[in-house]
Amino acid sequence: MANTNLDYSDFFKPLDLNSIAGGNQYLATQLGNLAAIHTSASGWPDLSECHFAIIGVNEDRPAVSNIGAADAPDEVRKYLYRLFQGNWNVKLADLGNIAAGATPQDTDFAIKTVMGGLLRKNIIPIIIGGSHHLTYAQYLAYEAIEQTVNLVAIDPRFDIGVGSDEYTSQSWVSKIILHQPNFLFNFSNVGYQTYFVEQSAVELMSKLNFDIHRLGVCRDKIADIEPVIRNADLVSFDISCVRRADAPGCGFASPNGFSGDEACQLARYAGISDKCTSFGIFEVNPLKDPEGHTSHLAAQMIWCFVDGYYNRKKDFPFGTKDDYTRYRVFLKDQNHEIIFFKSNRSDRWWMEVPYPPNQKIRFERHALVPCTYSDYELACAEEMPDRWWQTFQKLS
Length: 396
Hints:
Blueprint: E1 12-13, H1 17-21, H2 31-34, E2 36-37, E3 52-58, H3 72-80, E4 92-99, H4 104-120, E5 124-128, H5 135-144, E6 149-154, H6 172-178, E7 184-192, H7 199-207, E8 211-214, H8 215-220, H9 226-230, E9 234-238, H10 260-272, E10 278-282, H11 293-309, E11 324-331, E12 336-343, E13 349-352, H12 360-363, E14 368-371, H13 373-380, H14 386-395
Parallel strand pairs: 2-4, 3-4, 3-5, 5-10, 6-7, 6-9, 7-8, 9-10
Antiparallel strand pairs: 1-4, 11-12, 12-13, 13-14
Helix pairs in contact: 3-11, 4-5, 10-11
């Protein structure tokens, strides 16, 4: 890659590698030895050949019942750096930690600025929070590159807030919805738990044509969540969506949730998506994680995301339609023809959704909707796939 090196060192605190390593030396193929790490001794890393840049964020002031999450980045690194690279040649930089600014909004500005620069250079930011409200700053970075985005939040709650304008870890989605200019094309929640969500919030999500997927449905057939995540530009993971037995280190740890291996599978889905350009894990709290289980899981999730990236197939939006097998299905009762595409590289499926010709620049990248073979079977049975209809309403 011919990236001009970016220098955002003024925003970051260098890492104390000796403290993170516990005085130990990393082996040649452990990530702690392979990553270009920002330390006082080595200085700002060279990003010219990097595929990923880790951003730690020491900010938890807007956290609800989870103060202590600001200390998560270095704890996660302790486990991440011990992991061995897979069957790939990792190109990873660790920029260090963004300290909490004078206000949470100042911290957001730093994240937005750094991420915007990385995205322009096709470097994928991996954010280790910190509170889940930082997803708002993650989203703002896409404003800098003037791109409409799909956001997937893996979260047991919707985080839209209830009757308050306060900016917290449980109201950041409202900030995104109300932000102007608005460049959110779609919001998807994966893994919400009904007893944590008001029914009025479920109805609001439906009115906004947002995608919501209940935990039980996700766990019953987790492979069906892959197309949801495949459609995401940014993926945000609230660790409280993992059950307490596998991730106790969080203020909202619950008896129910995804298992640790399911969380890693979801992270790999994000990595293998050709569309995903940023990934964040939030709400890990070392104060509630004395044996480090949650930090260890977060580290393994990052590893799975990276592994997914190095197994990308260069499907949509990179390939041409010549790389796909086309299937046409006409729904007589609906008076709609749906065109399906099956990738010859990966056997994954997409549906084509028409959009107004004058909106090509805004909507073209959203017109092929990831789906499953089951959606094709549904259309063949004269039933409209929900994914197609939701996208059609947004594009019309």
